[in-house]
């Protein structure tokens, strides 16, 4: 008998022993158990993926709402800034108009004061000149009468 024969007998005995102690059943159960574990892990992964997708959708919805709210706030701020700018422009225009009116009023008053001062000076000079002319051409009694008459006329015109 050669070595091949004994190797075949050893193999048959080994396979018989394996079947006797139910190794194929244990391997099958082990593989089934492993397949069940893998199936459970896949189910868990699928559930987690669905939860992650739900969370992603929720966060995207919140992000869109936040972006819409931010856009609304920005638009409101821009409207308010435009209103404030317009209000400031109007107040500035009103201030400038009031200052111009006040300046024009002061200028008119200064013109009126200057005209009054010139008239007063002209009257004083005219009265003085008339007095000198009259004094040179008339006698003392006529001078007094004319002076009193002129002063009365000037006073009536000034008042």
UniProtKB/TrEMBL annotation:
- PANTHER family, sorted: ATP SYNTHASE SUBUNIT B, ATP SYNTHASE SUBUNIT B', CHLOROPLASTIC
Q: Tell me which family the UniProt entry assigns to this protein.
A: Belongs to the ATPase B chain family.
Look up the record and report any one GO term of the cellular component aspect: plasma membrane
- List where the protein spans the membrane: 6-23
Keyword Disulfide bond attributed? no
Specify the protein name.
ATP synthase subunit b
Alphabetized InterPro entries for the sequence: ATP_synth_b/b'su_bac/chlpt, ATP_synthase_B_chain
MF-aspect GO terms: proton-transporting ATP synthase activity, rotational mechanism; proton-transporting ATPase activity, rotational mechanism
The annotated subunit structure for this chain is: F-type ATPases have 2 components, F(1) - the catalytic core - and F(0) - the membrane proton channel. F(1) has five subunits: alpha(3), beta(3), gamma(1), delta(1), epsilon(1). F(0) has three main subunits: a(1), b(2) and c(10-14). The alpha and beta chains form an alternating ring which encloses part of the gamma chain. F(1) is attached to F(0) by a central stalk formed by the gamma and epsilon chains, while a peripheral stalk is formed by the delta and b chains.
Q: What does this protein do?
A: F(1)F(0) ATP synthase produces ATP from ADP in the presence of a proton or sodium gradient. F-type ATPases consist of two structural domains, F(1) containing the extramembraneous catalytic core and F(0) containing the membrane proton channel, linked together by a central stalk and a peripheral stalk. During catalysis, ATP synthesis in the catalytic domain of F(1) is coupled via a rotary mechanism of the central stalk subunits to proton translocation.
